[in-house]
Amino acid sequence: MTEEIDFILDSTKESMNNSLAHLEKEFLNIRAGKASPAMLGSVKVDYYGSMTPLTQVANVNAPDARTLTVTPWEKKMLHTIEKAIMNANLGFNPMNNGDNIIISVPPLTEERRRDLAKQAKSESEDAKIAVRNIRKDANTEIKKLEKDGLSEDVCKVAEDEVQNLTNAFVKKIDELLAVKEAEIMKV
To answer: Whole-model pTM?
Structure first.
């Protein structure tokens, strides 16, 4: 029966790791004042009739903290990519120089920084909720094993282990949030 407990603990840890990875991915999409290719991650381009992610039709680079360059693999895609960036409604004004598209990333206003910090906090709360739901599911599985005859002591130890995992992941989420908020609020 302890193999089942080990399995529950392993799958719980894996699920919590997935929640943390998802949070990190969401944080990449929250702009923190400096240019990042991830800022254009949501842009889709009409590539021969199918909507394709920008990164599959062009190279996106950040040569400095205030500039993004988009270099299409096919020159005839320049206008289409420029239009897609404008239609994505990201607040950017792309400039086409004939070879690539240059985007100047405007500095964030104080109000926008606060909004982005709220968004980051909301994402971290969602991650915490996910971790707590994973804890609840693991504890439900452990209770089922207890009803099936596993000793109360073993179940109590397993529940404590699940709680320790939950506490550790909530702490990691708080640490990630603190780093992201500092990054956003830094002028």
So the answer is: 0.71
Phi, psi dihedrals of residue 151, rounded to the nearest 5°:
-65, 150
Note the pLDDT tens digit of each residue in 81-104: 888 888 877 777 888 888 888 988
- The crossing angle, in degrees rounded to 10, of helices 110-147 and 152-185 is 170
Note the pLDDT of residue 32: 66
Q: What string of DSSP letters covers 120-145?
A: HHHHHHHHHHHHHHHHHHHHHHHHHH
Number of residues that this document lists for the chain: 187
Pairing assessment for the beta strands 95-96 and 101-104 based on DSSP bridges: antiparallel
Residue-wise DSSP of 140-176: HHHHHHHHTT--HHHHHHHHHHHHHHHHHHHHHHHHH
Q: Residue 59's beta-bridge partner residues?
A: 71
CA dihedral 156, 159, 160, 161 (to 10 degrees): 120
Q: Residue for token digits 């002028």?
A: 187
Q: State the amino acid at position 182 in one-letter form.
A: A
How far, CA to CA in Å, does 28 sit from each of 2, 21, 25, 51, 80?
39, 11, 5, 22, 25
38 DSSP assignment: G
Distance CA 169, CA 17 (A): 8
